[in-house]
Design a protein that fits this description.
The chain is 21% helix and 46% strand. It has helices spanning 55-64, 105-119; strands spanning 6-11, 17-20, 26-34, 47-54, 72-85, 91-104.
C-alpha cells in the first residue's frame, strides 16, 4: 500500500467559504499563502495552495469561525491535481490539498506543547 501526504503552513488571504453540494454535503474552501524561505527568498513569489475540507469536519471548522483573513494555519491531507481549460484557451493545472487536519497555528502549537508536557 502506498500513500502520498501533503502539509502546508501559511496565512489565509480571505475568510474560508462554506458551501453545500446538491447532495447536501458540506465543502469548506480556502487558500493558503506560503512565503518562500531560504537565501533567495526575497526574489521568490508567494506560493498559493487551495485547501478543501469535506463533510462534518467542514461544518465544524466553519462553525468555530477561526479560519478568517490573516490567520496562520497548518493543514495536512492528500494532494490532488486539478486541471482545467482557461478562458484564454490554455490548459491550467494546480495542486490542491484535500485536508483531514486543519489547525490555526496558535491552537496547533498549544496542543503540541500540552501533549509534550503530558508525555514528560
Amino acid at each position: 500500500m502506498s500513500m502520498e501526504k501533503m502539509c502546508v503552513q501559511g496565512r489565509l488571504p480571505k475568510d474560508a467559504e462554506l458551501r453545500y453540494l446538491a447532495t447536501g454535503k458540506a465543502v469548506l474552501s480556502f487558500a493558503v499563502g506560503i512565503d518562500p524561505t531560504g537565501p533567495d527568498s526575497a526574489n521568490q513569489p508567494t506560493t498559493w495552495r487551495r485547501v478543501t475540507v469535506w463533510g462534518d469536519k467542514a461544518e465544524q471548522l466553519h462553525g468555530e469561525s477561526t479560519l478568517v483573513k490573516g490567520v496562520e494555519v497548518y493543514a495536512e491531507g492528500f494532494p490532488k491535481l486539478r486541471e482545467w481549460d482557461g478562458d484564454d484557451g490554455k490548459r491550467h493545472a494546480q495542486i490542491e490539498l484535500t485536508a483531514y487536519l486543519v489547525q490555526p497555528i496558535a491552537a496547533f502549537r498549544s496542543k503540541r506543547l500540552t501533549s509534550q508536557r503530558e508525555a514528560a
